[in-house]
Specification:
Layout lengths: L2 E5 L4 E8 L2 E9 L4 H15 L9 E5 L5 H18 L3 E4 L1 H8 L5 E8 L4 E4 L2 E3 L3 E3 L4 E4 L3 H4 L8 E4 L1 H13 L6 E2 L9 H10 L18 H5 L1
Parallel strand pairs: 1-4, 4-5, 6-11, 11-12
Antiparallel strand pairs: 1-2, 2-3, 6-7, 6-8, 7-10, 8-9
Length: about 230
């Protein structure tokens, strides 16, 4: 199975191709939100470097949010177009799930944080203990709420990851008290299409998806308050 992965939900435009044994080739470009210009040429280059043709793609997996509304729409639209033209399944994976699996297999509670502007972050909590399990709802919260949000962590180890780390590392260092935490390596703080492939390969049910259309996944403040 040849899997094309697309992540345009952040400033980084990322494309990868993988098979059931893992990722074959990946390309990441961080030029801000210029994904509409970058994405198709990147797909062509990645497919070429993976030694396949577009007609050989069997599945598309796309980061469908949360993140940049414009970026999400671009990635989802292209993924759905591939699905409909080639008659292949399209799978949506949230950017938070993707970041969480990118941290690795260290037993820990993982807290991806994605900058939502206005001193807000998209977040969720995961436990990695032999497998990745989401233990909270997807949330949009004020940065000031992080301390209270992660207090429910029962593991000794808490790992923050995502571009929110780049924005709010200093704030976390000053304001998170009585909590043991660390930050993921810089390489794991940006969203990568290879993580999407890792995620679907870990969840075999996703490999059986038949639909060739996904919707963008947005989180509004009202959802976090319900």
């Amino acid at each position: 199975m040849n899997i094309l992965a697309i992540d345009t939900a952040s400033n980084v435009c990322s494309v990868a191709v993988g098979v059931e044994s893992g990722v074959i080739f990946e390309k990441n470009i961080n030029k801000g939100l210029t994904h509409s210009e970058l994405l198709i040429p990147m797909i062509e280059k990645v497919v070429l470097n993976a030694n396949i043709e577009k007609k050989d793609i069997n599945m598309v997996v796309v980061a469908n949010g949360p993140g940049s509304f414009t970026g999400i729409r671009i990635g989802v639209t292209v993924a759905n177009t591939f699905g409909q033209v080639l008659g292949i399944p399209v799978v949506g994976v949230t950017a938070l799930d993707s970041l969480a699996i990118g941290v690795g297999s260290t037993p820990a509670t993982i807290c991806p944080i994605i900058d939502a502007k206005g001193k807000k972050v998209y977040t969720a909590l995961y436990k990695h203990n032999g497998g990745l399990n989401k233990i909270s709802d997807y949330k949009l919260i004020d940065v000031e709420e992080l301390n209270e949000y992660v207090k429910t962590n029962e593991n000794k180890k808490l790992i923050f990851t995502g571009d929110g780390v780049l924005c709010y590392k200093d704030y976390i260092d000053v304001n998170l008290t009585n909590i043991k935490y660390e930050f993921a390596d810089d390489n794991n703080n940006f969203q990568k299409a290879s993580n999407l492939i890792k995620y679907v390969l870990k969840d075999k049910a996703l490999l059986e998806v038949k639909t060739n259309f996904v919707n963008p996944f947005y989180i509004k403040k009202s959802q976090a308050e319900n």
